[in-house]
Amino acid sequence: MNEQQRKELNQIKENPTDRKSAQDKPLKEKTSADFAKYFETTYQPPSLKNAKKRGKEDVNVHYDFDIPEDIARIGEGKKFLIRTYGCQMNEHDTEIMAGILTDIGYESTSDTNEADIILLNTCAIRENAENKVFGEIGHLKPLKQEKPDLIIGVCGCMSQEESVVNRILQKHPFIDLIFGTHNIHRLPQLVKEAMFSKEMVVEVWSKEGDIVENLPRQRKGSIKAWVNIMYGCDKFCTYCIVPYTRGKERSRLPQDIIQEVRQLAAQGYKEITLLGQNVNAYGKDLDMEYGLGDLMDEIRKIDIPRVRFTTSHPRDFDDRLIEVLAKGGNLLDHIHLPVQSGSSEVLKIMARKYTRERYLELVHKIREAMPNATLTTDIIVGFPNETEEQFQETLSLVEEVGFEGAYTFIYSPREGTPAAKMKDNVPMEVKKERLQRLNALVNHQAAETMKKYEGEMVDVLVEGESKKNPDVLAGYTHRNKLVNFRAPKSLIGEIVQVKVTKAKTWSLDGELVQTAEVKS
Ligand code: 5AD
Ligand code: SF4
Fold first, then answer.
1. 3-class secondary structure, 190
2. Nearest CA to ligand 2 atom 5
3. Domain 334-451 maps to which CATH number in 3.40.50.720, 1.10.150.120, 3.50.50.60, 3.30.750.200?
4. Annotated binding-site members for [4Fe-4S] cluster
5. pTM of this prediction?
6. Mean predicted confidence (pLDDT) in 64-75
């Protein structure tokens, strides 16, 4: 660990809650009177100090979501469009918002010019994600000028950040509605307010919400479905904005999750993905001695052919879960296990709470129990003051584990997080060059593992036409490999056997053999 890194680590240790950010700027600096009033009266900025104290109070589960009569048909004859950025959690939230808007009479459209309400469901994880959204907001301005009745709303993770709300209020006052990740169930009321109010409607809670169980939902697709098992994250990795934008960890009750999976199975869905920011922490807040392993052990008995889960944190990945995953069946041979760095020193400053050695031990255990499992990961390069040697440790870890795929990112400072305050001596050029080297290695490993499939038979869940060629069908194997092959469209939604004829870096070409037995 170099001198600068030691200093940063000491600062985090000594002063864990002193995270000065835009949220701490005095209110009087704000220009618009409405804006100041809003922040004084309604808005509580997300603060790490408060966030770190959280977790003690009970989360209430509600089953009584209801749409008031005066709003029930407010969208009749109108159309909605939701643009989704970022992770699966946002896709999940979009399905809920689509369900609510449909319930109040709106119809969905993919044509911007046709929409009466456009919602941008945003992502705050890296700066470029935010830039994309601000770019889109800029593009929508002429449309709003043309159609003053059009409602434009910003929701999702960016709306949980005060600096973003601030910027929209000051620079994009034509936006009608801003609401946070904890306010989705209030959408009917918010749409009504936005329709009739001349002011921008802003509703963002910094306190995390309860769990609302009976929200309507319009699922995208009829083959694969998301099943949220928990909300929020309490890990507080030093670079990450998620614990602030998504709030504290709250697990849904097992019976509610199991009921949802049973319903999806009955409706003919073929694959579900259990979803959460840190699914391995599932159940910790329930005081029930019941974890993800226990939940998966029950779900694997449900008659649904494929079950995945994402995203895992290595720290909470326990032996019980490994034991259950090893039972196989409908539990898929793919584990996405974000490592972030191969250097124990960098992991420490990231507050990941495991070392390189612990991660490798976990991989070893998983491989012993599930010899066929595909392992993929997330990696951040160019964390503040990362040295060439530390980066080399990431490269060597990628080789040692034999990851078959990785989402790789250049570190992006996020306002309000501890890492954003760290001085950084790594020039952007160096970060970019490291990312290229890492990607070259990951691509090479992916291509090598793909080659092993040539001539093999694989079970493919057919998802639809290939993106590049509508005459070709595409789907994924048990080990999460994309396969393209020619077959009748009537097989979409089925699990079929395909013989792999050619391996590419990120996909396999194959020939249909026969309809396979569905794995149970
Ligand atoms: N900069 C770059 N990448 C980040 N991630 C999270 N926060 C940041 C950040 N500030 C990456 C991590 C995480 C994935 C979802 O996004 O790798 O696992
Ligand atoms: Fe962010 Fe994941 Fe760390 Fe939670 S566990 S703080 S979501 S990187």
1. helix
2. 235
3. 3.30.750.200
4. 87, 123, 157, 233, 237, 240
5. 0.89
6. 92
